[in-house]
Predict the 3D structure of the following.
Amino acid sequence: MKIASFNINGIKARLEALTAWLTEAAPDVVVLQEIKSVDENFPREHFEAMGYRVETHGQKAFNGVAILSKLPLADIRRGLPGDDSDEQARWIEAVVDGPRPIRVCGLYLPNGNPVPGPKYDYKLAWMARMEVRVRELLATEEAFVCLGDYNVIPQAIDAAKPENWTTDALYLPQSRDALRRMENLGLTEAVRTRLPGPGVYTFWDFQAGAWERNNGIRIDHVMLSPQTADRLEDAGIDKATRGGDKPSDHVPVWVRLAA
DNA sequence: ATGGTCGGTCTCCGA
């Protein structure tokens, strides 16, 4: 079972690059972030023709998440619980209904800049709400994965130039501590486990030649519940997609779990 | 050296 995450930065602009990657990487399940589309405009038939079930949670212009799955999906839930006034489409979850069901939570965590300000407050509040959901899921003892664009740089080795990020919402102690709290509850960060060294990035800014200078950061993560961590066979980052035609600023991250 | 580039509701905003 291969499960992946890809912040595509606009489904309309990324249809070709996403299709090429799907064909090559052939994940069983992929969660997408920043589809930047309402549900009605998402090209679901295109992906259904490729053998995927499609569930979206979109909004106009910004944000938006989706799940594509070759296996049936059940118990689909849209939106992160805990704040009925939150209208940003950043969370979708579903149970992938295979021989060993796995709940897949796809997330687009708020960026949080500028700091200080309401956007940073929203980020930290959102992470606190996510921690509540993670605690609920851990209590059920079901197998689950929370993956997506976390917009958090966990450690200094996760940035080419950590000194450039010391006042940024992606790297401030409050953001990193909130991520660490979820790990400490019992989640395993899969890519770090398999690729423990420095220089492993998932995002290179479009600006200032970040890709050409390999000025990257690692902010897309795959967090495994104890039941799925026991099944982790491999994890990786498809860095080459960043150098392709009309790339996203993020690249896909993936895990392979024992059947 | 205070720049630079994407995508979308497109001459502004979010990243």
About this structure: Chain A has six helices and 14 strands. Residues 9-10, 12-14, 34, 36-37, 60-62, 111, 113, 151, 205-210, 248-249 of chain A lie near DNA strand B (CB under 10 Å from a C1'). Chain A has a mean pLDDT of 98.
